[in-house]
Write a sequence for this structure.
């Protein structure tokens, strides 16, 4: 019997692609360097940024100094714009997200969150309107471990007090999260309601997994 539903955050509960992006290309432009130059430092630090070994500000400082562009003003500008872009994501929720989370609560399901995230995203997530819905929020930056590592899934399940067989995991499929969930014994569902074919979104459909094209489909699957 399903007792808990564990969600991914980005491209599952929220999306970057309904609002202006502030990724590598945009930050590089503000710094005045090429995206290739920017990514020489940015890309190799991704994992360490996701598990709390280095902050966004520290990496941007390194990029600015390496390219002789450092100033406190520019660092603040980039940081503020990055945080604002993350906040903006929560203003463009798919219309069924809140009703779906509310319905899960009303029906007595436990709700977990497992999100790979960086320092600049953690505070935004915790201050968001979605955060109160989570009984066990597990953010990689705080946990020191990131998907697809099984450990972050096991920690979330332990706090929820459930077994893998009592869990449904819902995610867009990035970071091989669905594969890990399935391997652990959870029912894994790919959230496709934010999927836009032909965009720069990192994941397409994974037909080997159950698909949910709208958030309320999750309730329908649970009630079968």
């Amino acid at each position: 019997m399903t007792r808990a539903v564990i969600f991914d955050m980005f491209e599952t509960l929220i999306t970057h692609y309904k609002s202006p992006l502030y990724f590598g290309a945009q930050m590089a432009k503000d710094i005045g360097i090429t995206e290739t130059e920017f990514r020489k430092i940015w890309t190799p630090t991704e994992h360490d940024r996701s598990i709390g070994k280095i902050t966004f500000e520290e990496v941007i400082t390194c990029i600015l100094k390496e390219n002789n562009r450092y100033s406190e003003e520019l660092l603040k500008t980039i940081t503020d714009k990055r945080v604002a872009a993350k906040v903006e994501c929560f203003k463009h929720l798919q219309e069924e997200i809140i009703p779906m989370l509310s319905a899960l609560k009303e029906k007595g399901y436990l709700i977990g969150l497992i999100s790979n995230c960086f320092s600049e995203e953690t505070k935004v997530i915790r201050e968001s309107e979605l955060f109160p819905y989570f009984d066990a929020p597990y953010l990689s930056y705080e946990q020191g471990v990131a998907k697809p590592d099984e450990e972050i899934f096991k920690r979330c399940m332990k706090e929820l007090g459930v077994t893998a067989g009592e869990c449904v995991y819902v995610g867009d499929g990035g970071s091989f999260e669905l594969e890990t969930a399935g391997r652990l014994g959870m029912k894994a569902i790919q959230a496709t309601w934010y999927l836009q074919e032909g965009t720069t979104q990192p994941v397409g459909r994974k037909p080997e997994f159950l698909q949910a094209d709208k958030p309320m489909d999750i309730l329908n699957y649970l009630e079968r």
